[in-house]
Amino acid sequence: MNQDTICAIATAQGGAIGSIRVSGPEAISITGSIFKPAKTGKLLSEQKPYTLTFGRIYDGDEIIDEVIVSLFRAPHSYTGEDSTEITCHGSSYILQQVMQLLIKNGCRIAQPGEYTQRAFLNGKMDLSQAEAVADLIASSSAATHRLAMSQMRGGFNKELTELRNKLLNFTSMIELELDFSEEDVEFADRSALRKLADEIEQVISRLAHSFSVGNAIKNGVPVAIIGETNAGKSTLLNVLLNEDKAIVSDIHGTTRDVIEDTINIGGITFRFIDTAGIRETNDAIESLGIERTFQKLDQAEIVLWMVDAVNATSQTEQLSEKIIPRCEGKHLIVVFNKADLIEDKQKENLQSLLKDFPKESTESIFISAKQRENTSELQKMLIDAAHLPTVTQNDIIVTNVRHYEALNKALEAIHRVQSGLDSQISGDFLSQDIRECIFFISDIAGEVTNDMVLQNIFQHFCIGK
């Protein structure tokens, strides 16, 4: 483990106040070498932990700034090391001057995520909690905040630890049998192990299946906006995002590539995907865009099929065979756009075009994206179609891809345990499968994670955290 003393600016530029974090074995002495308390006669190293000390930062005889220094002593700090936090004025010049003084006196600049990595290595938190720190910083809605807080509080790891301990108990009993193989002794009750394996399989399955909800909450519910050229897809995207994200034109084939952006509607994050208009074309670039349209359609959970209400009959007849089969398992909303250009009687007739669509997963609405008519009603339909549960800080929902992959591997291992018990395989093979399940469960908390995985996780953190 690296024993350097590190420092970093922990606040964004532009604020009235700036903060610099210092952590490591010499954090207090290095900070004390450039800081003089306003109250004479007492050095920073003599201050009690969890205290704030007012004073000045000096570069020789020159005063850099008046600051407040927070003092933390190991192991009772965020990193588990001696730490200080220097709160000064938010001037970028002042912050850089203080940083230069710290480096000159023995600090080095912290790498992204190094404070949290040290907290993990010092046992202040497990790896799933450390990863939740980055999720908490990046949270953009109440739901993502609650999920990150739940994981930081250790609820996820607590459930996994209980599973791991139960499995360890059984595998130790099975391995004990191997030491007495000649006596043909059975220490582990196979029926009890089968019951435990079933319980564990249910828990792991529940956690793995929660990833679809967790991923939607964290990254946004994917919504593909599809349809023919000039149906109003880009106009609708601009209306939903409330900005001119996509170019709007009367020229067919204006959108040739996928345009994505996210927005929070009713507390739910949606990731809207504006796609190239579907039509027969000889343009090679536009054809590539149409191919990507179908790829994004396959990835979406909600599909907004934009139909020009004036030409609705021809558009639905031409595209139904291409779109409907790809919408299986998705929520389809047929959006009849430019409804301000048709009569109410025509709207009734257009509803009949949907008679062969899957009734349980298809809705329709008439709007005018250009006039912003009925777009609020469309947003309400999107919220209902998302089907996301209300999340509390006590809910355990998987949002991390690494955790999801580990759970799936643990699930495969426990399935082999169940199959082995049914076929009465020998204890050594059974023990191996149980230990594989334990390995992947432990990997989530970071008990068996290698250095490459740690580096990959923490390099995506922001500097200062």
TrEMBL record:
K(+) binds at N230, S249, I251, T254. One of its GO terms (cellular component) is cytosol. Gene3D superfamilies: P-loop containing nucleotide triphosphate hydrolases, Probable tRNA modification gtpase trme, domain 1, tRNA modification GTPase MnmE domain 2. InterPro entries: G_TrmE, GTP-bd, GTP-bd_TrmE_N, GTPase_MnmE, MnmE_dom2, MnmE_helical, P-loop_NTPase, Small_GTP-bd. It is found in: Cytoplasm. Its cofactor is K(+). It is an enzyme of class 3 (hydrolase). Residues 220-387 form the TrmE-type G domain. GTP binds at residues 230-235, 249-255, 274-277, 337-340. Binds 1 potassium ion per subunit. Homodimer. Heterotetramer of two MnmE and two MnmG subunits. NCBIfam families: mnmE_trmE_thdF, small_GTP. This is tRNA modification GTPase MnmE. The gene is mnmE.
